[in-house]
Every structure is written in structure tokens, then in C-alpha cells.
Amino acid sequence: MTDPQSAETERRQAIWGFLIALAVVVVLVLAFVLFGLPGVGMTMVVVTPIMFVILITLSVGK
Length: 62
What we know:
The protein has 62 residues and is mainly α.
């Protein structure tokens, strides 16, 4: 069984994950509505280095 402290931490981490995913979806929808497909493409160009940093950080174990 897990203690209440770790369950609460896990719940907060899950909420943050869903909020980040929601923010990404909102940004993509706004980019598409305002600029069309080039807006979505530019959003992906900006997000690519950020994703590389996240993947490297995860692979290092931090």
C-alpha cells in the first residue's frame, strides 16, 4: 500500500501532466485557427528543441 503523502504527490504530478497536455492542445488549436497549417508547423518547430531537452533529461534520470 502507498502512504497518503506519495499518493498525493502522484496525483499532483498527474494533474500537472494533464494540464501541460491541455496547454499543448490549446496552443495547437489557436495556431491552426489563427494561422492555419503554417501556424501549426511553426508551433512544432518551437516545441522540437524543448522535447529534445525533456527526453535527454529523462534519459539521464533527473
